[in-house]
Amino acid sequence: MPRKRGNPGLKGQLLEKSIEAYIMALETINRLSIKYRVEAFTYLICNAWELLLKAKIIEDTSDRRSIFYSMTEQPRPRSLALRDCLGKVFSNDKDPVRANIERVADLRDAAAHLITSQVPVGVLGLLQACVLNYHKLLGVWFSISLSDRVPVGMMTLVYDFQPEQFTLANLQLRRKLGRESVAYLAGFEAGLRAEHESLGRTTDYSINLTYHLALVEKPRDADIVLMKGATGTATGIVEVPKDSSRTHPYRQKELLDALNKALQGSATVNQYDILCIVRQHDIQKRPEFYYKGKVLGSPGQYSETFLDWLKTHMERDPEFFKKARQSFRDTRLATREKRPTKS
Question: Model-level pTM?
Answer without folding.
Answer: 0.58
